[in-house]
Amino acid sequence: MQEITSVPPLDLKRQYQPLAKEIASTFSRIFESGGFILGPDVQAFENELAHFTTARRAIGVTSGTDALWLSLKALEIKPGDQVLTSPFTFFATVSAICNAGATPIFADIDPDTFNIAPEEVERILENDKERKIKAIMPVHLYGQAADMTKILSLANRYLIPVVEDACQAIGTQHDRGQVGTLGHLAAFSLFPTKNLGAFGDAGFVTTNDPQLGDKVTLLRTHGSTIRYHHEIVGSNCRIDTLQAAILRVFLPHLNHWINLRQKAAAYYDEQLKTLSSLIQTPVRVPYSTHTFHQYTIKVKNGKRNELSEALTRKKIGNSIYYPIPCHLQKALAHLNFKVGDFPQSEAAASEVLSLPIFPGISESEQDYVVETIKTWAK
Fold first, then answer.
1. Do residues 96 and 203 make contact, with C-beta atoms less than 8 angstroms apart?
2. I want to staple 165 with a disulfide (CB 3.0 to 4.6 A). Which of 139, 188, 203, 344 is the partner?
3. Which value, in Å, is the radius of gyration of the alpha carbons in the chain?
4. How far apart are CA 378 and CA 374, in angstroms?
5. Torsion-angle region of residue 233: left (phi > 0), alpha (psi -120 to 50) or beta?
6. Are 164 and 183 in contact (CB under 8 A)?
7. 244-148-239 Cα angle (round to 5)
8. What is d(CA 106, CA 82) in angstroms, rounded to the nearest whole number?
9. CB 8 within 8 A of CB 314
10. How many CB atoms lie within 10 A of CB 326?
């Protein structure tokens, strides 16, 4: 057996190599067709995504970021409005709100799941006396759903639409249904590193509301259904035909890839359980599956950076998602947030560390990761 001396954070070549002939054939087919914008492959991919997610509509777009922005635009979010979301997320969640002209309002997270805390959402909505909050955008971080039963109950009470940021959670099952079908709209990323990833930027929006689906479809093509006739001001946010065609090759394998991630996560859980005084492995909730876009641990006692350096010295890929919560980003300095405003998010930013996880990671590679952590822990 070959000695393990390094572990990548992700190995897409290993994942896609068995599909190499089908991928090459798809490239050739699209090249020979000359149909590079929209067309049959986009429509087919959207139909297949709708079937996979169980949503009535799926609309392919340029990125997860644009999927978020288009969802807000479809709800007619505008300057002066506020959108409630998590401060502990990739900045695209917030930039989409800002680019829609609205102001992000934050609710702190649950320290175990890293997802937005419903009790914080409730507190903020109760204090929104002027009813400026026009949408709630929960994030299903790392592949586990937010507590949507409680969030949707609050949204219904205050008559506020919900946009799911499902960019990291394709295939995740909540008690109420699959993510992407729980809110009014949902945004997904198909960035190459996602559980379902393109060969470049791509994303999609899902909805069970036909009118909202039509609105997103209109917005993604300059507000036009007939060439040179523009009903509203939209933008150029359509998915490339080539990306849609490649993703059609990958989609039938997604459930298998998710199962492999879950198996790898369970192995880490078992091997790291003796280190509970130093490390908290991902907490599972009873109302959601976890698809492990990331396997993210919490390193206690201020030792996160020390462990990260130990892993790096052993050539083990590791990442911090995310080292600076959104409310403390320079880009939002004008909102006057300060350290201490969202203590759970700030604590998570100083403690989280993601370990290598991907379809095809071997137990030997995971053992190398675990032994490195155990040696460090001594």
1. no
2. 139
3. 21
4. 6
5. beta
6. yes
7. 15
8. 10
9. no
10. 27
Residue tagged 């790096």 (tokens): 312
CA 168 to chain centre: 2
- Are 337 and 327 contacting, i.e. CB atoms less than 8 angstroms apart? yes
Q: For 356, which DSSP code?
A: P
Q: What's the pLDDT score for residue 1?
A: 59
Q: Read off φ and ψ for residue 279, nearest 5 degrees.
A: -135, 135
Instruction: Tell me which residue of 115, 118, 107, 179 sits closest to 142, measured CA to CA.
Output: 115
The SS3 of residue 206 is: strand
Whether the CB-CB separation of 222 and 185 falls below 8 Å is answered with no
CB 294 within 8 A of CB 357: yes
Which residues, listed in sequence order, are joined to residue 205 by a DSSP beta bridge?
59, 187
Query: What whole-number distance in Å separates Cα of residue 273 and Cα of residue 363?
Result: 16
Q: What pLDDT, in 10s, does the model give residues 92-143?
A: 999 999 999 999 999 999 999 999 999 999 999 999 999 999 999 999 999 9
Whether 147 contacts 118, CB under 8 Å? yes
β pairing state of 352-355 and 295-299: antiparallel
Distances (CA, A) of 362 to 269, 300, 317: 15, 27, 14
Query: Does pTM top 0.90 for this prediction?
Result: yes
Q: Which residue has the tokens 């919900």?
A: 162
**What is the token pair recorded at 296?**
């993210």
